[in-house]
Structures are given as structure tokens and as C-alpha cells.
Amino acid sequence: MRVTAKATQPDIKPLTGTIKTVYKFDPKRSNVWLEVDGDRQYVVKRFESSPAKQQFLRCLQIHPGQCEIKQHRQLERLGIPVVPIEKQVWQAGKLCLITPVMGQSLDRAAQAGQFDQPAARHALAKALGQLTALLLSKQLFFRDLKCSNILMDEAGQLRLIDAGSIRKVSAAQLPDCLKRMTRLLEKTAMEAAGQSPCPFTLSKTDRLRFAKSVLANVSCSTALADVLAMSHAR
Ligand SMILES: Nc1ncnc2c1ncn2[C@@H]1O[C@H](COP(=O)(O)OP(=O)(O)OP(=O)(O)O)[C@@H](O)[C@H]1O
Ligand SMILES: [Mg+2]
């Protein structure tokens, strides 16, 4: 469960500036906040397991933060729109990842009423279809493809965050991966819709636009193309 928090949470200390917003407060797993230092704004994600454990994982180069950095770099090279991780900083033995602010996550955008208009939802459905198709075309599976892990900037461009778990899969696995990613996206989009100032439901048109956009943009294995063609014909 996501914990909504205020900027006064104990235990969260800014790196160099002041804390403007706490996006996530979970002292057992990770804290995420927006920090301002002069005219600079950046997001800090601090891993919260014990410093001893983090230092041990660091030595072995298998700290989840280190893996996230590596994965984001690789995804950038593959042309997947991810938010770049600009820096890593150790704060009292805990790893902090620094990312630029490139819009807000889709759940927060929904809470701010950004998708109250059907036209905004249609545009989002199309953009999510394109993003999903891009992942499939590169044979990538993101098991955590949820609204809170996708940022949208002012121009409507989507970018992934928290993408350390993306992995390459075989062509035969793609249909199942598509099902799992779509289910999670739909579940989290419904939750976000319920938190909107004017709660809405996902219409058949929203779903159709998403499906059409996946179909129009996917270029990959025959296995997946067959499954998509079959489900489209039904
Ligand atoms: N660069 C960024 N710009 C704007 N918002 C951000 C950025 N990075 C993180 N956030 C906000 O902080 C939230 C949590 O970030 P992130 O997903 O990286 O943390 P997490 O600990 O992996 O969270 P979870 O386990 O819940 O997925 C995001 O859903 C988003 O609202
Ligand atoms: Mg996340």
C-alpha cells in the first residue's frame, strides 16, 4: 500500500537542500522525496534496509539501487524512455538515487484531475499502448508496469521510473508478459481513477484505444503477432 506522507516525516533528511514534497514514506523499504536546492529541483529515492546490509550488497555489486542504475542505462541505450538516474549518493550508509523531475506519475496526475476529461484519457490510452508496444518489440517484460512507475511530462510524453526489474524474455513468453503488464496497468489505472476529483471508470473506448495502439505499434515475434491477431478477431 502506498503511504501518503507530509514533508515533516521524521528520519527523512535532505541531502543538500530542503524537502518540498514526500512522495513515498516507507521506513522499511524506501523513502522518496522532492528536494529543492537554490534553483535546482530533484527527486531522491533512499533505500531503507539496514546500512550493514546495504554495504554488504554494495560490495557484491548487487544492491537493488546499483541494479536499477545499470538497468536504466541499458534501457536508455535501447531507446526505451526512462528517467535518467543522474547520481548516487550514500547518506549514513544508505543509498540515494537522484533523478530529475520530468513530470509527475500517472497516479498523482489522476489525483490532480488531469484525466477527468475523456479526451485526456484517450490520449493517455494511446500513449500507454505505444509504450507497451515498444517494450514488446524489444522483447522486454516490465513486471512493475504500473501507474506509479510512469511519469508524464507537460507535453504528454511518458517515461518509466523504477525500471530495475525489466528483463529480456523469449518470443514465446511475450503473450503472457503482455497479459500481465496489461492487467497491472488496468488495475492501477482503475485505482487512480477512483482517486480522481471526479472519479471515472475506464470506458470501452479507453480499452479499445489502448489495444489498437498496441497493435499498430508492435513489431515483433510471430508468436505475439498471432496471439494479438486472434484476440483482435474475437
Ligand atoms: N523523477 C521523478 N519525478 C517525479 N516524481 C517522481 C520521480 N521519481 C519518483 N517519483 C514519485 O515517487 C514515487 C515513488 O518512486 P519510485 O517508484 O521510484 O519508488 P519505489 O520505492 O520504487 O516505489 P514503489 O515500490 O511503490 O514502486 C513515484 O510513484 C512518483 O510519484
Ligand atoms: Mg515505483
Descriptive key words:
234 residues; alpha+beta; binds adenosine-5'-triphosphate; binds magnesium ion; 20% strand; five-stranded antiparallel beta sheet; single chain; Transferase(Phosphotransferase), domain 1; 7 helices; Phosphorylase Kinase, domain 1; 2 domains; globular
In short:
The protein is α+β, with helices and mostly antiparallel strands. It contains seven helices and ten strands.
Strand content: 15-25%
CATH architecture of the largest domain: Orthogonal Bundle
H/E element sequence? EEEHHEEEHHEEEEHHH
Bound molecules: adenosine-5'-triphosphate, magnesium ion
CATH topology of the largest domain: Transferase(Phosphotransferase), domain 1
User: Using only CA atoms, what is the Rg?
Assistant: 19 Å
Description:
This protein has helices at residues 51-59, 64-77, 106-111, 118-137, 174-195, 204-217, 222-233, and strands spanning 18-24, 30-37, 40-47, 87-91, 94-100, 104-105, 140-141, 150-152, 158-160, 167-168. By secondary structure, it is an alpha+beta fold. It has two domains: 18-100, Phosphorylase Kinase, domain 1 (2-Layer Sandwich), CATH 3.30.200.20; 104-233, Orthogonal Bundle (Transferase(Phosphotransferase), domain 1). The strands form three sheets. It has a five-stranded antiparallel β-sheet. Strand 8 and strand 9 form a beta hairpin. Helix 4 (118-137) runs parallel beside helix 6 (204-217). The protein is globular, with a radius of gyration of 19 Å. The chain binds adenosine-5'-triphosphate (ATP) and magnesium ion (MG).
